[in-house]
Amino acid sequence: MTAAPDPAEMPKGMLARARWAAKNTPEKRNRAVDLYRAIAITFVVLGHWLLVAPVIRNGEIELSILLAEQTWTQYATWLFQVMPVFFFVGGYSNSLSWASARRDPERKRAWAATRLTRLLKPTVPLVVIWAIAAFIAGRAGVSPDLINAASKASLVPVWFLAVYILITVAVPVTAAIWDRIGIWSVALLVACAIAVDTLAFTADMGWLRWSNYAFVWLAVHQLGYWWHTSDYPKTWALAFVVLGVATVYTLVGPLGYPVSMVSVPGEEISNTRPPTVAMLAVGSVQIGVILLLEGPASRWLKRVRPWSWVILYNQMIMSVYLWHITAMIAVIGLAVLSGGVGLSMEPGIGLWWALRPVWVLLFTAALIPFVGVFLRFEAASRAPGTTPPGPARALIGALVTCGGLIMIALSGIGAASAIGVNLIAVALVVVGVGIATWSLKAPSGAGNA
After folding, report:
1. Predicted confidence (pLDDT) per residue in 181-236, tens digit
2. Would you list the DSSP string of 298-312?
3. Which residues are 441's β-sheet partners?
4. Domain limits of the chain?
5. From CA 116, how far away is CA 113, in angstroms rounded?
6. Which pLDDT value is given to residue 358?
7. Cβ 80 vs Cβ 31: under 8 Å
8. What's the angle, vertex CA 325, arms to CA 322 and CA 331, rounded to 5?
9. pTM for the whole thing?
10. Given pLDDT bands bounded at 50, 70 and 90, which one contains residue 17?
11. What's phi and psi for 263, nearest 5 deg?
12. Contact 194, 186 (CB under 8 A)
């Protein structure tokens, strides 16, 4: 997250190291990028903790979705759906990192594997532990439907992660396109996304919508390149906000797009799975706000204390992201085992909302040990005398991993098999991560492909 430190000078303890890094951060670093990433993760966590509304009905636990129970809450997704922020910030970070790596042949060769390590390795314990939990729950007589519902809810984060992984391994290509045609690459991708929506909704070509995973998120990611490489006037930031608001109003109003920017059970069309042009419009508003606040945020983060906390949070950001729903499921499970305490009231009533802060505190308390245990998997370091995978292995490993993650995101971890676990999906994740990130003993004077 910061300039490479001298290990001999580093203090012990995560907070102490974060403070040390804050004091030694180069002045030219855009600290607002890390702040926006931290804020976005927090919004994702809070959004999921409020979105899932567990309730006991007819003696059975249901993981109902608040957006379906209280439709007015769908407007709140315009604030809590912050995936565009991740891709925008990711584009900035990837542009900066790739530009630096290209100046060194060895760093360039290892760039994809190094970048993927912090994204891929933390997924292994999450998937493996959920596979073990599904096996034990099945043997204990838990309904397969409940196992799949709980695992699909807990593994929701891997859906976005699979898309982001693929966009990351494509950086050498997308960066080259940016170098060649610049902002026109964004315009081309946006035009393709609009064309896809038009054909899908007017010519009964719904299957075509899946291509918008590439067009929509690559467009936002390319805008991150623009942010990194351009000196933009403030009028651009305002233009993003105005254009985004006008487009959202047009799409949701006259054109009949769904209000929610998160998938809602029972609704035929989703703005996010796959993404629609409405997601680009919301992203435009968010990007405009990000640019408007960049100056004040950067000046505030010149202070050591807030900047050190941002550094600390970013060091555990993948663990928080991947485990926050599992922590929530653990608390709900304990509530069920305790006789259903707090789970009898209908979601959305006044008392239910009044008790949300208590539940959020419980979820936070449950998340802390998960982060403490699994934080080590975020470390991107490798053993001395080893060489990381080259771009070919990184790409193959990323594709294999994403295949497993997508299977799990679509169907859950359970399966109609002897052990009740989708072993193929689990194996794809474990093997894929190994292919993409496992460093081999370096042969003298050579690197691997």
Report:
1. 999 999 999 999 999 999 999 988 888 999 999 999 999 999 999 999 888 777 89
2. HHHTTSHHHHHHHHH
3. 386
4. 29-441
5. 5
6. 94
7. no
8. 135
9. 0.89
10. confident
11. -60, 135
12. no
